[in-house]
Structures are given as structure tokens and as C-alpha cells.
Specification:
- About 20% of the residues are buried.
- The N and C termini lie far apart (about 120 Å).
- By secondary structure, the protein is of the alpha+beta class.
Length: about 240
């Protein structure tokens, strides 16, 4: 009769305490490494969403400026400022940027005029520069954490000025063609001797709209008349575009 060998359990019932401690230590290291990485990624995404939002507002501000030659005082003015001469908005809709923020970056789109931290943005203007600024994650304007988008409207002023000059110089050509060669000199035509007098003549002839905008360029400087050495009228010009023909 054969003997049976006693059953020996080969599988361990549980981890030992040192092994559990080692696993816990490894998990702690992984968590310690993952949390800063997650925070860094989230901060990057928040700044990206905010910069996209500021860019949208800045572009809308450029269109606002093109129509009014004024900078928007608030984000709300981009939506409704009908009392302002030339306003042709709205230049900004509340849903602008929503799809971009949600699909590309996985964050909820900020409300109109708010950054990704749900704080209001600041609009400032000086000279030809229009700035849209978020205080960033630290909520302090003027710190290194700010997110800012700048728009230079000098090219918009130049474009508007060229459009006005095209109207004025086209009218001047038609005026001189109608009155004949003797009208090209100031001595033969005292009315044409100064910009104000000539503009009044062009407006009276229906060649230029009766608007104050044709007296000055987009910087607010009065248009000037350029003459050849013999006194012949050549063209209207802007002191801010003196290098252009």
C-alpha cells in the first residue's frame, strides 16, 4: 500500500509587509511625479485657451477701430455700441471660440470677456497699440504670468487714409479735367489755393461726400496739397504717408 505525500501549499496567501511598503513607495513616487506634470499640462492648456480668446477679442477690436477710429472701451462694446458713430457690429459673438476650446484643448470655453480662469480681461490702448490682457493664473496684472495679445492698428489707419486719398485725388482729377488746364495753378484759381477751399469746391461739385472725414487722415492730421514747382496741383497727400506716391 502506497503512502500519500502530505499536501504542501505552493502559493503564498498574501504579500509580506516589506513588499507592501515597497509597492506603496513606488505608487507615491509615481503620484508625486504625475501631479506636477498634470498641473503643468493644465496650466499650458489654460494659457492656450486664454490666448485664443484674447486673439479673438483683439481681432474684433481691430474691426471696431476700422469702423469707428476708436478703441473699444470694454468687451461689451464689441457686442453692442450702437450709439457710437460708425459702429457696425456686433464684432464679437458669445459663441466665438467655443468649439475650439472644447475640442482641441479639452477645457470648457470661457464666457465672453473672461479668461480660462473665469476672470475678466483688460483692454488698454496707447497710440497705435491695442492690448488685450489676462492676469493669468496668479490673478495679478503686470506680473510675468500675464497673457497678452497686442494689435498694432497703424496699418488700419494707413489703409483708411489711402482710401480717403483715393477719393480726394480721384475727385481732384475730375475737377481739373472739367475746368481745363488754367485751373491747375493757384494764381489762376484762388479757390484752389488752399486745402479747405479746394475741398469745399469738390464737395460743392458733388465730387466728394460732405463729411469731415475727408479733411483729415486716420491719425487726425489735416490733408495737404502737393504742387509742382510751377504751382500745378499734383495731388492730395497725408503728412503721415509722406513716402508714398
Amino acid at each position: 500500500m502506497s503512502r500519500r505525500r502530505p499536501f504542501v501549499r505552493s502559493l503564498r496567501a498574501a504579500f509580506t509587509l516589506p513588499e507592501l511598503c515597497m509597492v506603496a513607495a513606488i505608487l507615491a513616487v509615481l503620484v508625486a511625479a504625475a501631479v506636477p506634470a498634470y498641473d503643468t499640462i493644465r496650466s499650458y492648456r489654460q494659457k492656450r485657451v486664454t490666448r485664443d480668446e484674447l486673439t479673438t477679442i483683439a481681432r474684433a477690436g481691430g474691426e471696431f477701430f476700422r469702423d469707428t477710429l476708436e478703441f473699444p472701451p470694454t468687451v461689451a462694446a464689441l457686442v453692442d455700441a450702437r450709439e457710437l458713430a460708425g459702429w457696425a457690429g456686433p464684432y464679437l459673438e458669445p459663441e466665438d471660440g467655443e468649439a475650439r476650446s472644447e475640442t482641441e484643448l479639452g477645457l470648457a470655453a470661457p464666457e465672453l470677456g473672461l479668461d480660462a480662469w473665469s476672470r475678466g480681461v483688460k483692454l488698454t490702448a496707447q497710440g497705435d497699440r491695442f492690448d488685450v490682457t489676462s492676469a493669468g493664473e496668479d490673478a495679478v496684472f503686470g506680473s510675468d504670468d500675464d497673457v497678452k495679445v497686442e494689435l498694432d492698428v497703424g496699418w488700419i489707419r494707413a489703409e483708411i487714409t489711402r482710401e480717403r486719398l483715393a477719393t480726394l485725388n480721384g475727385a481732384l482729377e475730375r475737377h481739373l479735367a472739367e475746368r481745363g488746364p488754367t485751373s491747375t495753378t493757384s494764381s489762376a484759381n484762388p479757390v484752389d489755393a488752399d486745402p479747405s477751399g479746394l475741398l469745399a469746391t469738390l464737395v460743392g461739385a458733388g465730387l466728394v461726400p460732405a463729411s469731415e472725414r475727408y479733411r483729415v487722415d486716420a491719425w487726425g492730421a489735416p490733408f495737404e496739397l502737393e504742387r509742382a514747382p510751377d504751382g500745378t496741383l499734383v495731388r492730395w497727400k497725408s503728412p503721415n504717408l509722406t513716402a508714398e506716391r
